[in-house]
Amino acid sequence: MSQEKQHISSYTSHFVVLITLIILTGISVAVTRVEMGPLNTLVAMIIAGAKASVVLAWFMHLKFDNKLFAIFTALVLVIFLLVLYVTFFDYSYR
Amino acid sequence: MEKITEHTAHVHRDDEGDKLGMWLFIFTELLLFGMLFLIYAVYRYKNPVAFQLGGEELDVFLGTLNTVILLISSATVAMSITAMQKGEKTKALILLGTTLFIAVVFLINKWFEWGAKIDYGLYPNSENLLELGHGTTLFFGLYYVMSGIHALHILIGIGLFVFVYRQIMVNKINKTDYVWLENVGLYWHLVDLIWIFLFPLFYLIH
Q1: Count of domains in chain B?
Q2: Per residue in B162-206, pLDDT tens?
Q3: Closest chain A residue by Cα to residue B38
Q4: What is the span of the domain harbouring residue B179?
Q5: Rounded-to-integer distance, Cα B9 and Cα B68, Å
């Protein structure tokens, strides 16, 4: 067991994170009404990515836990994006 | 020999190892859903109009409502861990109970949402759907499979919450030993994480 004391997140910090996530959800829904063509999907994914990062960092405690967990998570994300890239590269040139 | 007896008396515990195991499981889950998102991306790329029309059939209000309550449940389970760490057992139980309640409400909303679609004749292999063509069939096929597997995760989460609630009641999970609660929390945040992407990709297609 590690000797260092466990980081305890306060109720307030969880509440602030929650409000942030709800505001981002609101923006995501509102921005759908703005006509931006293909950019709409991009904006929706950027907001979803921001929400996911907040959940991972604070709720899932990656910000405070062993950095190894955060590095592994980033690697999984990179693998996924690579597969996505290769797949679309393939489909685009068929 | 003396040393061995001494060693067996020591109860081995490795909370960080437990968490690492949970994270490895989460990675397999991320890749599972990741591949479903990949299939979604390719089919949407090939059928952009059908996916947009399909998306407009979905109930944005119910989708948004479920997003918000799922976010709240993520916060309450995180707060229940805080309560447990501070040794506030009753608070932890109330917050965990709230999470459990919200998980059930999410499924009830899903029931109504799916019910409305099915009444409307939009379900896999329905005559209505087959008439609407290939792209729409793919959209609703993915909608049912992806939100279905997600709902299955909610159902498993409910089971885990009931288990953890009991463990806290009998003090098996306590102020000094709460890694079970943390791991169930991690699982629940994963369920939330996946919904964060499902919601815009199905309900908010423009």
Answers
A1: 1
A2: 999 999 999 999 999 999 999 999 999 999 999 999 999 999 987
A3: A84
A4: 2-203
A5: 48
Do A24 and A50 belong to one domain? yes
Q: Is the residue at A27 inside a domain? A: yes
Instruction: Give me the total of CB pairs closer than 8 Å, taking one residue from chain A and one from chain B.
Output: 113
CA distance A15 to chain B (A): 7
| Secondary structure of residue A84 in the 3-state scheme | helix
Residue of chain A nearest B182, judged by CA positions: A60
Q: Is A3 inside a domain boundary?
A: no
Residue range A61-81: mean pLDDT, rounded: 96
Which chain A residues touch B30 with a CB distance below 8 Å? Answer: 76, 80
Partner-chain contact B82 A59, CB within 8 Å: no
pLDDT per 10-residue tile (average), chain B, 206 residues? 53 90 98 97 94 94 97 98 97 98 98 95 89 93 97 98 98 96 98 98 92
ipTM of the complex: 0.93
Domain that holds residue A26: 9-63
Is residue A54 domain-shared with residue A83, that is, in the same domain?
A: no
Q: Which amino acid is at B99?
A: T
Question: How far are the Cα atoms of A54, B2, B75, B92, B188 from residue B79, in angstroms, in the given order?
Answer: 16, 45, 6, 8, 13
- Return the pLDDT at B10: 66
How many structural domains are present in chain A? 2
